[in-house]
Amino acid sequence: MTNIPLIPVLLLGAVLFCLGLLAVITKRHAIVVLMGIELIFNAANLNLVAFNRLQPDLMQGQIFSVFVMVIAAAESAVALAIILKVYQYFKTVNLDQIGSGTDT
Amino acid sequence: MNISAPSLIASLTDIRNGFAFLGPELILSFFFLLLVGLDLFKSRVLKQALPFVALTGIILGLLTQVNFLHQLAAKQTTVFFTGLLISDGLAHFAGLLFSVAGVLTIVLSLLSNQLRLKFSGRGEYYAYLLVLLTGLNLMAKSVNLLMLFVALELVSIASYLLTTTLKKQQNALESGLKYILYGTLASGVMLYGMSFLYGFGGSLSFTDAAFWTNLSRLNGPFFLVIFLLTFAGFLFKIAAAPFHFWAPDVYAGAPAPIVALFATAPKIAGFVVIIRFLAQIKSYLVPALQDDVMVLIGGIALLTLVIGNFTALWQSGARRLLAYSSVSHAGFILAALAALATNSTEAVLFYLSVLLFMNFSVFLLVQIFEERLQIFYIKDLAGAGKNYPVLGILAIIILISLTGLPPTAGFTSKLLLFTNIWQNYSATGSPLLLTLLLAGILLTGVAFFYYIRIPYFLFFKRNFSSEKKVVLGRDNIALSLLTLPLLLFFFQPAWLTELIREVVLYSK
Fold first, then answer.
1. Of A50, B160, B358, B453, which has the highest C-beta tally within 10 A?
2. CA of A40 to nearest chain B CA: how many angstroms apart?
């Protein structure tokens, strides 16, 4: 097994996290925001798998990442169902055009 | 990798023994499956029985919690399921509060016009409620990052679905969408923080001394960033300041019983997790980092208090007002926890128990105003107190309690909380605690102004349009029964404080 150094993987994770956060902050399309959030989950997954090398016998990081994938899938299913309902009601999924504008 | 047979057998035995401590969760899961099964039949009688089936499940869970809390002195804290979960006083007391919250949610739903009879999502509604309660129980028991994440997501997903129950209501979908986007973002950020905690702590179990000793080697700012990322998820659940944006929208869009539940139960679970983390930090982390954590929590508490109380002043809708009031309550509790002292747990648990009754009674009040009297804004309340004197008087009691004035339990809980902060200030002399104490007392004064607007409109404003009166027999009785604990715990706080003292002793 070739050894991949830890630091570049963590940096890649950090880049993914920042990209995800940037997408959430700047984009107004609900599905693109959801994609940004998935990037954040993937950044965390990458970290978990990378850190697993420090204690390879326990496999905790690997198992955690499998759990994360399953839960992220469940969450996006619910999110997409809600987005679909929102689209049927408002005929748009642009976050700025949804709602009564009573923000405080 | 090889696992030896004896160690495998030991783990399996441990898992089997662990089921003894999982009573409420098992009962709730069983009733969840039962509800899903019963919902498949088309019989009308069966459909109408669904709320009562859910109620039976929650009450059975409640009885097992009471059974655990009985004769606490003889019991010991146990870590079970190979170190994933813990059974201690804190977990079971929180479980008791969750069950009470569940029962009250069903009572409020049965009193609601929209949720009562012919609403189509009834089966799922009660099923999600049971899932939510299961998740909360697991969250209060977990001592492992993986378990904590799974439990928290169980709570979150059920919450998103419950928010959008009334699809016809325009706000419901809007608030549901905002809730799920903010919510998944908060869990993603929390997960990213947890991955670093795992990497640098070298373990997933956050009650290990070794976990915190490893983390102590990190330098200050880096640790604080990881810590804040991880806490984002918990602060989101308790609606504390930088992560409170969902609260006003969700409170405006979700059904009133569900809002009452959101304002109490996930908040209690979030605080239990925070208490567990802070207790470990106090015991095992190096003092230099402890001070940083203290400043961070204190800062968040101060921000939450200021934002919660001042934004509430500008609200015209009752639900948005209560959302910011709920944010400010989270601030008060965080202010007590900022001392990182072990003695604050009792005051915090008392505050949370009283908050449970206050929130359910105030949201029943909101529900009565909205559904029975068609009043949605505070200015429309004008004169309602004269037409409905019983409702008006109960409203005054509830709002006095939310402000924290005698003779209500709200006063007792604030008194205990502020006394606790003062004690910790005298012990440490930390200027941060003094600031928090003064800010807390001053902002209670600010809170008085926005709460008092409601009784002012109820009784002192004239309303010339005379509408025909609605009979409120059942609602008044339910509301008085919910208000009773608020007076009871003021005159007899010892009933609750005795229990909490035992619970805290059992938690160590």
1. B358
2. 6
State yes or no: ipTM above 0.85: yes
The CB density around residue A3, as the number of other CB atoms within 10 Å, is 6
CA distance linking residue A83 with residue A75, whole number of Å: 12
Per DSSP, the three-state class of B458 is: helix
B160, B171, B185 ranked by CB distance to A37: nearest = B185
Nearest to B21 by CA among B84, B98, B71: B84
- The answer to whether the CB of B391 falls within 8 A of the CB of B472 is yes
Query: Is B75 in contact with B221 (CB distance < 8 Å)?
Result: no
Q: Are A44 and B188 in contact (CB under 8 A)?
A: yes
How far apart are the C-alpha atoms of A72 and B191, rounded to whole Å? 11
Count helices and strands in chain A by DSSP H and E runs: 3, 0
Q: What is the tens place of the pLDDT at every residue in B305-321?
A: 999 998 888 888 888 88
SS3 content of chain A, % helix, strand, coil (to 5): 75, 0, 25
Answer whether B380 touches A (CB < 8 Å).
Answer: no
Report the candidate in B229, B218, B198 with the shortest Cα–Cα distance to residue A47: B198
Rounded Cα–Cα distance for residues B255 and B367 (Å): 9
Asked whether the beta carbons of residue A17 and residue B145 sit closer than 8 angstroms, the reply is no
Angle between helices B389-403 and B473-491 (to 10 degrees): 30
pTM listed for this prediction? 0.93
Query: Residue B504 in contact with residue B349, Cβ under 8 Å?
Result: yes
Decide: B245 and B182 in contact? Cβ < 8 Å. Answer: yes
Domain extent listing, chain B: 286-508
